[in-house]
User: What shape does this take?
Amino acid sequence: MIEIRGLRKKLSRHWVLDGLDLDVRKGETLVVLGPSGTGKSVLLKHVIGLMQPDAGSIRIDGEEIVGLGEKALNAVRRRFGMLFQGSALFDSMTVGENVGLALFEHARDMDPAEVRRRVEERLEWVGLRNVTAMKPASLSGGMRKRVGLARALALDPEYVLYDEPTTGLDPIMADTINQLIRALQKQLRVTSVVVTHDIRSAYAVADRIVLLYEGRVRYEGTVEETRRTADAMMRQFIEGSSAGPIRPV
Assistant: This one.
């Protein structure tokens, strides 16, 4: 469903993405691992057209999105939901207004009662009830993550992108988010890309794992293949060792 070929992006005289090739298959959850600063979040921003590459191709269901105008890109973006690393909720809005924002923007013919029903339904999907009138500042970190996920699901996306979904959460809440990602993938049959540096989260949610380093994919395998791998880079990342081919940034 997503085909990326030869993707290159330079930031501050540094090639963050340097000839990256990657396929995301229909209905799978692909986890993109990598040390901090290796271009994982930059990759997601390219997939939804928030950034344009210096070179390369990105095809969504066969449609080239590199070079598309803003109107055409917006049509592509409506097929995506994204959970940002910090949840990116608007503090001045209630939870209900945050979750319903995309509906008000892109489904303006929808009856307000139907918007409210869908907002409450999406919040129930992520295990939240009776929170629509609350403000984000009054929520815990885990609750904010789940509200952000409910918002990402508001338009019934075909693809969901997760940028560090468990960062900053305690282990119990991180596991709750991991189980939620897996359950939603099975329930909704969406195609998901999860960017993380947390190997435990990767094992919990992935169908397939890739390791990104120095702007390119350096390893690819299933969860079981990754657990058993002898690949030097992947083993170093799994073990969290400073000794190995991955150099600290």
